[in-house]
Amino acid sequence: MSRAAIGLDLGGTELRAAIVSESGRVLAHAQVKTEAAAGPDAVIAQMAALARSVRAERPDLEILGVGIGAPGPLDSDTGIAIAPPTLAGWRDVPLRDRLAEALSMPVVLDNDGHAAALGEWRFGSGAGLRHFVYVTVSTGIGGGVVCDGRLVRGRRGLAGHVGHMTIVEDGPACACGNHGCWEALASGTALGHEARRAVAADPTSRLAALVGDAPATARHVTAAAREGDAASLALMAEEGRRLGIGIANLLHLYSPERIVLGGGLSSAFDLFAPAMRATIAARAMPEFRAVPVEPSALGLEVGVIGAAALVLAPDPGRGPVQPVFASASI
């Protein structure tokens, strides 16, 4: 019987699940909107239901366990979600243990940035590299760093919160409670805020027409920019500039061989890349400017593949994975 793992990618906006083979191939997939405002009980029930749904599609496979990539901060050693700002009401939630109990399966939990970095490192654009940075740009901004062939984990596994670098000292408020974080300026959520201002400033624009009566989002900006909307193209250029500032910082901090961008906003990579690369060229020291910055090779599946990789291909620097085991399997 072929072996595989279930990967769960928990985001503040969407929840994805997949069965992933040992070679990193997605064999079954499902997704729903995350009931983030409903609290942890509702979201954990969603996660269990989605895992059962994809499992039912492939009863022929031996499932080794479930990996979860979740927004931080979280303690990957104890499996506790400490206080993720993109999930309402979450405070010291024993996510790993609760899902293991619900599914009667071994479960491994890690930061979604770490998980995605691991997936990209094992099966995507980071394969074969010893020094590599992955950045996910979605509802928030997260990431993972591979240095000297090991995933940088830090105390309690809390390293890699790149979205909370301060970019502008007196900048907009961030969900973490600080001001001027990279996430508050360049995430998909931040782009949505800018889009709403643009719609208010010009209600006759193509962007405004696409938005209609709904709240403007980064997806609206992407769609309008692809149709040539001037306001949306300007927003994308500003998005690229803001991303470039943070990426220049990461180049100087970690000196990677490659930086990879994933997450929902990476689908607009071609729209913001020119401004991003111009900003990197202007801000990075010459020795760092030639480092390639590319979109994820795994696309929107990087989160579920990375979560499954926590079971299938764990980071060698972490030591043997010790998931929580229950008595039966789903």
Please give a structural write-up:
This protein has 330 residues and is of the alpha/beta class. It folds into two domains: 133 residues, 2-Layer Sandwich (Nucleotidyltransferase, domain 5), CATH 3.30.420.40; 171 residues, ATPase, nucleotide binding domain (Nucleotidyltransferase, domain 5). Helices cover 38% and strands 20% of the residues. It has a five-stranded mixed β-sheet with strand order 3-2-1-4-7. Helix 9 links the parallel strand 11 and strand 12. The C terminus is likely disordered. This is ROK family protein. It comes from Segnochrobactrum spirostomi.
Give descriptors for this structure.
330 residues; alpha/beta; Nucleotidyltransferase, domain 5; 2 domains; 5-stranded mixed beta sheet; disordered C terminus
Summarize the helix and strand pattern as letters.
EEEHEEEHEHEEEHHHHHEHEH
**Total number of β-strand segments?**
12
Q: Termini separation (Å)? A: 16 Å
Largest β sheet strand count, sense and barrel closure? 5 strands, mixed
| Poorly predicted regions | 319-329
CATH architecture of the largest domain: 2-Layer Sandwich
The overall pLDDT average reads: 92
Give the amount of beta strand, in percent. 15-25%
User: How big is the Rg?
Assistant: 19 Å
Spatially, the strands of the biggest sheet line up as: 3-2-1-4-7
Shape: globular
Q: What structural class do the secondary elements suggest?
A: alpha/beta
Number of H/I helices: 10
